[in-house]
Amino acid sequence: MTKAIQQSVTFPASARELFETYVDSRKHTASTGMPAKISRKVGGKFSGFGGMIGGRNLMLVPGQMIVQAWRSAAWKKTDANSILTITFTDTKSGGRVDLVHVNVPAHDHRGVTEGWKKYYWKPWRAYFRKQKKES
């Protein structure tokens, strides 16, 4: 079993805005720059980055938490799904995302760890900066 990936990141957006950016297909696509389709239902499927990642929603607490069975298209068929838990909380200056990602296969652990930073948090920073300027 690999070590859990744990990351906490703050943004100039409320917890609800952060949650909506993840679960709204249009906002997810706009914030990452890559095609995404996200169901808002427990048991519903999701895909991101043009199908490079996908899985299904295990639990949704609107505005607060997402739990997903998550996998990369690059993983071996024999690799089990990983479990992704993201919580969203308000802070004095916006909101915080706390991510815990477990059961990521050893052969892609570093890639997924860095991928959250490169493909989500960095583009989200630019996305929310732009949103703030436009409002």
From TrEMBL:
Residues 13-120 form the Activator of Hsp90 ATPase homologue 1/2-like C-terminal domain. SUPFAM superfamilies: Bet v1-like. It holds the Pfam family AHSA1. It comes from the Bacteria. Belongs to the AHA1 family. This is Activator of Hsp90 ATPase homologue 1/2-like C-terminal domain-containing protein.
